[in-house]
């Protein structure tokens, strides 16, 4: 499994949204945009691992997601996220249950993870077919997560795989799987958060459904934006003001 060493933990409020500060489009094309910082409301660190790959972690847990397919599904009823989770060093094994996961939407609402029955009543075949060609690697786990496991909250009847209402997380396993949410009125542009409740804390991974202009801006200035994210969560320098 491909692994990446996580940044040192810093108790920082909020996560970076990938939207430029308000200024003329011409100015955005000439110089990197300034990143806004939405308030996640919990202490955590955020990282960008790809154009459509986001991660967040604290001293207890680590969550990463890929959302390229979701970004290409504006107006559709079902949103799918490729998701990975693990526990941080020295944390005891934890059973993550279905009701510990939810989605915050741009209008301020919160959507729970649906049941297997609700999921199977929805027609997600087109979304699944699209995701096969619109998928990014999310194998950016802490070094301790050297073994793989499945997040099996959902399964299709024809696949033969079982769906579970919980997944056992531990520091040595990087668990991955697809999460689905039914969005009333369809997927809209704007800021979302994937919320995951661990034993003693909550992690909220931000991702933004981008407009075409925002997408172009991000792709054009990706390196600069990623560096701004790193700088925002870097520990303060000793002896500084």
Protein described:
This protein has one domain. It is 19% helix and 32% strand. It is built from six helices and 13 strands. The strands form three sheets. A seven-stranded mixed beta sheet has the order 1-2-3-4-5-11-9. The protein has a four-stranded antiparallel beta sheet with strand order 8-7-12-13, with no helix packed on it. A hairpin with a 5-residue loop joins strand 7 (101-104) and strand 8 (110-112).
| Biggest sheet architecture | 7 strands, mixed
List the total number of helices. 6
Q: What is the molecular shape?
A: globular
Q: What is the total domain count?
A: 1
Q: What is the percent of helical residues?
A: 10-25%
Q: How much of the polypeptide forms β-strand, as a percent range?
A: 25-35%
Quick check: average pLDDT?
85
Order of neighbouring strands in the sheet with most strands: 1-2-3-4-5-11-9
Structural class: alpha+beta
Residue ranges: pLDDT <50 for 5 or more in a row? 1-22
- How many strands? 13
- End-to-end separation in angstroms reads 41 Å
From the alpha-carbon coordinates, what is the Rg to the nearest angstrom? 18 Å
Query: What's the SSE pattern?
Result: EHEEEHEEEEHHEEEEEHH
Chain-wise SSE layout:
Elements: E1 12-13, H1 25-30, E2 43-50, E3 53-57, E4 61-66, H2 68-71, E5 78-87, E6 94-97, E7 101-104, E8 110-112, H3 116-121, H4 125-133, E9 147-150, E10 166-169, E11 173-182, E12 190-197, E13 202-209, H5 212-220, H6 222-232
Parallel strand pairs: 9-11
Antiparallel strand pairs: 1-2, 2-3, 3-4, 4-5, 5-11, 6-10, 7-8, 7-12, 12-13
